[in-house]
Design a protein that fits this description.
The chain has 500 residues and is α+β, with helices and mostly antiparallel strands. Helices cover 34% and strands 25% of the residues. A hairpin with a 4-residue loop joins strand 8 and strand 9. The N terminus is likely disordered.
């Protein structure tokens, strides 16, 4: 029968339309008979499918009520086996005409794969050992008008999976497992920070100032105020205002928006977790994040040693720690401390065939950063802290007292990717204004609008204690702990170009 065709995601469009047409006809018949499935408002369950399996020894020969999507049907005339899937898993149901009644059975035979059903019946084990439910009652709870992908091939087209995540979740149980794990990871991070006295807060998503940071914001317009506003590119400046205000430990799980490109580790909207702690420094934040990753990985995955894309990653052992100068010297042979001038540094970069974006105005710090990008980052497979960054690319970090050309900043890397960023926070309002103004001038020279956040400077002028701050991408942590190669695999609804 045409209505029993099960299509792959590559099925001809006219076949899907035909299946949909037939199912709509069935729906209209149900509605005409006074049995509109969309009129059902609730179904009282007393079990999920997973609990039936897990508690079979106590539930055997007892009556349970489950509900879920009908995923398959094996027709043997007056008796059928169907698989019913709910949010916890799936279970086999035995449906027989003698038990549910002829009228119900005849109606049930017209239902389609993908429809939602409610089942009341006895828990038993088949002769083949399959835990099942012997249905005494079965009800149609909702109608599916589109066919699910064919079960053996599933929904395999990556682009279609991301666009139709709802179908992806139905057909690929491991995808659902990834997002259950994502939720657990976030819960464990919150538990860790809350247990150490951090306060979770919320700060504005809409900003009135387009700050001079390198990331480009999305612009919108507030009609009532008749002003342009910007979706936030970070949560940092508002969180530090709270440190000024007297909170000693704060963090935010924040949705961030950046009007930039997309690749395996970047999406225009993503989630960061930023935390700030008064009276500590960047070394204190190193200790915190290393212990946090170790704790979260152990609680979520059972171990802080795990495999990512075929490579064993050891977060249990002490993480490597190198200054940027040490790392560049180790992997490129170039020694920052041997450069006597900016010109000599640029000559070293040229000899190593590394282009410096700032050209003839590049400083020793710019060159060091360029050499790091060229020679170091792709070597940092195991967890590694890289610290003491040049002041040129660290406008919010405190300078090192004995080497003012460097800042008390670190980034940490795992699987050759930057996972997070931290500072001993700059709390000198005069130095901060000077750096903001230089950053804004640089952005405007590139033809990009930028402004100094005067209110943040005003906050600093009231005084901010010595503070350590750190931010990391939740999505990249989830990628690591779920062995996911792309950020799109850990976002339920990644940004996609609209179909024509």
């Amino acid at each position: 029968m045409a209505e029993d065709i099960v299509m792959t995601n590559e099925a001809p469009e006219e076949d899907v339309f035909e299946v949909k047409r037939i199912r709509i006809e069935k729906l209209r018949e149900l509605q005409a008979s006074g049995n509109n499935p969309y009129d059902v408002v609730k179904y009282d369950r007393n079990c999920e499918t997973a609990s039936v399996r897990e508690n079979f020894d106590t539930l055997e020969n007892t009556v349970v009520r489950i509900a879920g999507r009908m995923m398959s049907r094996r027709d043997m005339g007056k008796a059928n086996f169907i698989d019913v899937m709910d949010g916890s898993g799936r279970i086999q149901v035995y449906v027989r005409i003698n038990d549910v009644g002829e009228d119900v059975f005849n109606a049930y035979k017209k239902w389609d794969i993908g429809d939602f059903v409610g089942v009341e019946g006895l828990v038993f084990r088949t002769r083949r050992g399959e835990i099942s439910i012997h249905a005494h009652k079965i009800e149609l709870l909702s109608k599916s008008l589109l066919p699910l992908p064919e079960k053996y091939h599933g929904l395999v087209d990556k682009e279609l999976r991301y666009r139709q995540r709802y179908v992806d979740l139905i057909m690929n149980p491991e995808v659902k497992d990834t997002f259950y794990k994502r939720s657990k990871i976030l819960s464990e991070v919150r538990n860790y920070l809350n247990g150490r006295g951090y306060l979770e807060v919320d700060t504005p998503v809409l900003h009135t100032v387009e700050i001079g940071a390198a990331a480009r914001p999305f612009r919108t317009h507030h009609n009532a105020l008749d002003i342009d506003m910007f979706l936030r590119i970070e949560t940092e400046l508002y969180l530090k205002r709270l440190i000024v205000g007297g909170f000693d430990k704060v963090y935010e799980v924040g949705r961030i928006f950046r009007n930039e490109g997309m690749d395996a580790t970047h999406n225009p909207e993503f989630t960061t977790i930023e935390m700030y702690e008064a009276y500590t420094d960047y070394k204190g934040m190193m200790d915190l994040i290393e212990d946090m990753y170790r704790t979260v990985a152990t609680n979520v995955c059972g171990s802080a040693k795990l495999t990512y894309q075929g490579v064993e990653i050891d977060m249990e052992s002490p993480w490597a720690r190198m200054s940027m100068v040490e790392a560049v010297k180790k992997y490129s042979g170039a020694d920052y401390y041997e450069w006597e001038s900016d010109e000599q540094a640029r000559a070293v970069a040229k000899a190593l065939h590394v282009e410096v974006e700032e050209g003839e105005s590049a400083t020793k710090g710019h060159v060091l950063i360029a050499l790091f990008d060229a020679f170091v980052e792709d070597k940092l497979v195991q967890p590694t802290f890289i610290y003491d960054y040049p002041v040129e690319n660290s406008p919010l970090a405190k300078r090192k007292a004995n080497e003012p050309q460097f800042t008390e900043r670190f980034e940490y890397f795992i699987t050759c990717h930057e996972m997070g960023n931290a500072f001993s926070e700059l709390n000198d309002p005069i130095d901060q204004r000077r750096r903001f103004e230089a950053q804004v001038a640089s952005r405007r020279a590139q033809g990009v609008n930028a402004e100094v956040d005067d209110d943040f400077i005003n906050a600093l002028e009231y005084g901010m204690p010595p503070t350590g701050g750190l931010g990391f991408g939740l999505d990249r942590l989830v990628m690591l702990l779920t062995d996911s190669a792309s950020i799109r695999d850990v976002l339920l609804f990644p940004t996609m170009k609209p179909l024509k």
